[in-house]
């Protein structure tokens, strides 16, 4: 979530005005997801909408800078510094095999049931049994393998 702006923060770089409306829409969706009631959901399920919004906002900024080349390096660095996008997740997206990664927890071996493994959503759909429903327990992803 973006840091709270105070009078001491530097003004955003040139080009921010063009994407400000979209980033505000993401902030509104994030507030709605945070305030959404979570009765009847599992503990981890209540965080899934927040993680999805964070992922899509980071992907939007990634696409603007790396795919479309629509924003400057200075604006991109400022957005990362201000917390509009997850810099560590974007760094993984640039590596082969991680282009569709949903969250960093899915590749951390320490959070998994079996030592040294990754999340079920990282397994290509062709290697799973037919009819197997894949759903990540961390973020609700239904498959972020580059092969799926």
From TrEMBL:
Highest taxon, organism lineage: Eukaryota
GO term, biological process aspect, one: mRNA splicing, via spliceosome
One GO CC term, this protein: spliceosomal complex
Subcellular location(s) of the protein: Nucleus
PANTHER family: PROTEIN BUD31 HOMOLOG, PROTEIN BUD31-RELATED
Family, as annotated: Belongs to the BUD31 (G10) family.
Official protein name in the record: G10 protein
Organism of derivation: Botryobasidium botryosum (strain FD-172 SS1)
